[in-house]
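Re: your question from the hallway

Yes, I did run it. Sequences:
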Amino acid sequence: MTQVPPSPAVSIRTVSKSFGKGIYAFRVLDDVSLDIGRREFFTLLGPSGCGKTTLLRLIAGFETADSGAIAIEGEDVTARPPFHRPVNTVFQSYALFPHLTVEQNVAFALEEQGMARDAIRRRVGEALEMMRMGAFARRRPAELSGGQQQRVALARALAPRPRVLLLDEPLSALDLKLRKEMQIELKMLQEEAGITFLFVTHDQEEALTLSDRVAVMQSGRILQMGSPREIYEAPTHRFVADFIGDINLLDGEALPGGGVRLDSGTVLPAAHAASGRVTVAIRPERARLVPAGTGALEATLVHSAYLGTAMLHKLELPVGGTFLLRQSDPAEAAPEAGRRVGLSLPGEALRVLAQ
Amino acid sequence: MSVAFRRLCLLSPALLVILLLVGVPLCLMAWVSLLDKGGSAGVDWSSAPSAANYVRLVWEEDFDGTMILNTGYLLIFLRSVALAAVTTVLSLALGLPVALWMASLSRTGRDVMLLLITIPFWTNLLVRNYAWLIILREDGWVSQFVNMLSPWPVQLLYNDAAVAIGLTYSFLPFTILPLYTVFEKFDWRLLEAAHDLGATRRRALRRVVLPIATPGIVAGALLVFIPCLGAFVTPALLGGGKTLMLGNIIQMQFGASRNWPFGATLAVVLLAIMLVVMTAMALWRNRRTA
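Structure:
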């Protein structure tokens, strides 16, 4: 007997959306298609204005698409209002109801479903316990700290057991330490609850830490979709490479049969199937400092910063432009600032990107 | 100088104003309500204080000296409260959607609407009520239109309905403005959150918008109900003298009847009703927010 593979948790087909009219129309989403697997932690990553929040709002039902279709677990929800969709949202501002207590906030969706009174009480208790907010059940949102409000918002969105949980930059209002804690907690929560998470963020580090898969968006399009490792190590676009982590970008000309002639004249042995103008990308931690005259590139050391776990060197290339190099062993001797050094660039660490 | 004394000194201008302009006149009115009516001056200041005027509200001395129930004033009280209540409900029902819509406008749109709503205040209330006289009268087009649709003849003017319409028109801004200030600050993402959690538009309105708007609703209701109880221009004009309200009989006692003590009695009772309503509202609100 052949088994039919389950339909994806969220399926988006050729969705476009514009705001404004006539000559003022602005395309926020341009022919976007993507599938999110069940129980996947999927992240939409991009700078502000890239359309990631609009895409989330389309799935929640707060906006309607100009064209295209959205399905949740195989059911077409394109025309359904938000209150008839099996998804719940954790808002950036939390949007807790100020006139209701914590437990009344969490019970809201269950009451709308017409659940029995004691079943609601049990479910609310469970949800608050899971977020360790049981002691605050009778408080009002205004009496809670930002981190506590965040937990209540999560409990409220999880209590009705949605098929997909939508998270709109939920951690952006928290300070760094709390954000790190909540990241770990979110990941554990997702595994525990067994729910598909669709996470929206502009924080690339957050996206890499949390996600099973990431979609990098720019100007209403998805540029690249893949695991955090793929996105980081094998970016397919100059924008993706530049947006995620630190990277050195060197412009040049693709040579037929492999190799790239940089604008400085140096030829780097980078494998590629491109032609014409290209950019060679290399991460700071993949390059190595070598004595002057022995590396692929020559550079002048401008500044070295001690980071505890590593040294970060800032170098100046003779043709202009800076080059970042991360030396993973800070105990290793480093040349003084102002010295000429060589850069060793291993061929397998070089990514050639079309311009 | 002790702190308490300094505090008293700092408070004294405000206390003085309240004492002289609110306290003294109120006491004077309460005192007058216990006296007899005088000749030309309206009050017989030398008469012994008694509760006779209050008795007169409900009881009437018959020709043979027995006291019989007089429902005349009671009915006017009841009608005043009923008309004020109807006006309050109508004003809220009309003001709520207007305030909601105003809050959804752009900045300029809101400013224009605020201006439009305050423009009627530039015109005298009497003039505005005369305008309604013209709109509702028998040969007016509103009356003709209604009578064209209705199977039986409809009289629009000189009845309770006309008074309710006139009062609602006069006091509508007092519900729109406090409701607007609530909705202007309203976080519309809460509405999205409610929809997200499965509440339909109607349910979200009931469970989120209205509870949060409650302070505005209460303020609007009080701002309409209280002046409505004492209104006398609108019932005098649009009620055609048939529909009397508290304000009218008080005005009559101080004017044509020259019976100031009885007028003061009516005013004290009106004040008592308002106090009861306001206390009830305050208690109800405290219980809800507790």
